[in-house]
Amino acid sequence: MSDPITLCHHCDLLVKLPAEEAAQTTHCPRCHADLPHDLHQGLQAPMALCLAGCILVVPANTLPIMTLSILGNSNANTMLNGVLQLFDAGYWWMAFLVFLCSVLAPVMILGLRFAVCLAISTGAPSQWVVPLLKGYQHLTHWSSLDVYMLGILVAIIKLVDLGDLVFGPGLYSFIALLLLSSWSTATFNAKALWSLVSRSQHQGKTNR
Amino acid sequence: MKRGIDLGLVLCLQCHQVNQQASANNPGYCHRCGAPLFQRLPQSLSRTWALLITAAILLIPANLYPIMTVVYFGSGQPDTIMSGVVRLIQSGQYPIAILVFIASVAVPVIKILGIAFLLLVVQLRWRLSPHQCTLMYRSIEWIGRWSLLDLFMISILVTLVDLGEIATVSAGTGSTAFAGVVVLTMMSVMTFDPRLIWDLQDTKDEHDSN
Lengths: 208, 210
Hints:
The complex is a heterodimer of chains A (208) and B (210). In chain A, 60% of the residues lie in helices and 12% in strands. Chain A has 208 residues and is mainly alpha-helical. Chain A folds into two domains: 1-39; 43-207, no CATH class. In chain A, the strands form three sheets. Chain A has a three-stranded antiparallel sheet. The longest helix of chain A has 30 residues, at 92-121. The radius of gyration of chain A is 21 Å and the shape is elongated. Chain A starts with a strand and ends with a helix. Chain B has two domains: 1-39, Rubrerythrin, domain 2 (Single Sheet), CATH 2.20.28; 41-209, no CATH class. Helix content of chain B is 60%, strand content 9%. The two termini of chain B are 16 Å apart. Chains A and B meet through strand 1, strand 5, strand 6, helix 2 and helix 3 of A and helix 1, strand 1, helix 4, helix 5 and helix 6 of B.
């Protein structure tokens, strides 16, 4: 029930899609853009991964990532504290950007993916699924957990000569969250889910 | 090689559904997700220029004003992006200095120049390889988020190094401007329509065959 043709989103070329079994990855023959494929990989894996991710968000954001001690004085940081401290210092615009890219977008992406899979697997009407999938696609540009990981690494290297650094449970939760969210990206195929939405819309029309 | 625009077909950029154009001048709405359809992103060039010029202007305060101040045992001064990199070089941390330089200095400048170049290619109809221009667009699109590195690092340092008399780190004015540069350049990548690059070639082919 997939479209036999598509248009390349980078060069507007009309592309004939290969049969579904061979559709692992398709490239535009002209500009070589990765074309999204329709291969449906099931809903269980992304649901499980996103649910686990949503749970891990709590310790990753609230437990200390690391503790710095200099001459007996020590201080710990969490992801949310970093945002709050910037906000308190008056850098609300920067605090918002850090919050959006490191907390809000990743959480919303995991939550929306879970909601989409749940809605489809329970046979919810397509007008529920459409806004969830659309919202999800707007957020994908902003999620930057991988960049945050690099930020942590740079901070570690800058501080390692300053005093004693001890890694906290927040760091391990964050690394697990990063891995889970990239894994769930690999199992979640928005294009295939859009095809399922088409199918349910089609059935809705014929039943009426 | 047939394009969607020649066949009256429109791709929905939200859900990747191929739609029949509603009428000759009006693509209408996606029949699957209801999003408005566009053959090309509306006012792509002027919107991208506007965002890009704003980003270029903000780049000046982002580099001239300090982005953070490190005070260690009562001594320390505000650091701009560049002086932070220089400090890392002086302390011998070359790999990290290169990383910060790439993420905070090189990437924003390359992004602004790169998108300006693509805009000029489309506007002045330069006869360049559309393959390479598209490759450039994709690289700029991919590289965009990595400029957030410095902002994340500041948010980590500000909370972690908060030890009163011993050591403190505080953010500076430049970081607000830098955050603006990152957001504006990411948005300008989103408003630029890479299909415009290929339209040049397609209209050129028509001229040649006529």
